[in-house]
UniProtKB/TrEMBL annotation:
InterPro entries: FkbM_mtfrase (IPR006342), SAM-dependent_MTases_sf (IPR029063). Residues 29-177 form the Methyltransferase FkbM domain. GO terms for molecular function: methyltransferase activity. This is FkbM family methyltransferase. It comes from Fibrella rubiginis. Pfam families: Methyltransf_21. Keywords: Methyltransferase, Transferase. GO terms for biological process: methylation. The lineage of its organism: Bacteria, Pseudomonadati, Bacteroidota, Cytophagia, Cytophagales. It comes from the Bacteria. Signal peptide: none annotated.
Length: 225
């Protein structure tokens, strides 16, 4: 059971159509528990081999798999693969680049079809999870739906999403508030979708402090070298 699923169950909220962009292997899907509850799902995975595995794994359920990357245009895009991380080669920052020192020139690259998110968004998504290693902004930028819940990768160890400013501005402009953060994701909800408790607000403040201290520690170490 994922943290996202557990915490939303505790809030006693329901969904009709969930979407995940950047599933990776199906056993670790962030919305897999919702799918197994019988909720309709749209799954987007750029790695064609993994997309096949996803379709097979969830074949008993009401799902639609799109084996494409989400980007700023419709066409073809080069991706780099670094262990469990697959990201757009042209990005200046991604978790693999920042946290693991991965070099694009030394890794495996491959081309995949890419689309704007508006090409697959029916306007019906009420829960969205995005984890595409630095390209998350391009989902929000072209999104038609306004989900009640959006889980988006924004940070991790030393990494900060390269489009964090755009993401925060979009959330504010579209009336979202942050609910909680985990080790890599920020989870936003539509304002007034449910009440965020005082405890949850304190926990978010402590998480922000911890994340800032960790990044400052790295910066200090660099200065001391």
């Amino acid at each position: 059971m994922t943290t996202l699923y557990q915490r939303l169950k505790e809030k006693k909220v329901t969904f009709k159509h969930v979407c995940e962009v950047g599933v990776y292997v199906p056993t670790v899907s962030n919305i897999g528990d919702f799918i197994k509850d019988g909720i309709a799902a749209t799954l987007v995975e750029a790695d064609p081999d993994v997309a096949v595995d996803i379709a097979i794994y969830f074949s008993r359920y009401n799902i639609l798999v799109h084996p494409v990357a989400m980007w700023d245009y419709n066409g073809t895009l080069q991706l780099s693969k670094a262990a469990a991380s697959t990201f757009v080669s042209a990005l200046a920052s991604s978790p693999a680049l920042e946290n693991d020192g991965f070099q694009v020139a030394t890794g495996a690259t491959f081309d995949v079809p890419c689309k704007r998110f508006s090409e697959i968004d029916t306007g019906a998504f009420d829960l969205l999870s995005i984890d595409i290693e630095g390209s998350e902004w391009y989902v929000l930028k072209y999104m038609i739906s306004r989900p009640n819940v959006i889980s988006i990768e924004t940070h991790g160890k030393f990494y900060v999403n390269p489009f964090i400013k755009e993401i925060r501005q979009w959330m504010q402009a579209n009336d979202y508030i942050i609910w909680y953060k985990d080790r890599s994701d920020s989870v936003y909800i539509k304002r007034n979708f449910f009440v965020v408790s005082g405890y949850e607000k304190i926990a978010l403040g402590l998480k922000n402090t911890w994340l800032n201290l960790r990044r400052q520690k790295r910066h200090f170490r660099k200065l001391m070298r």
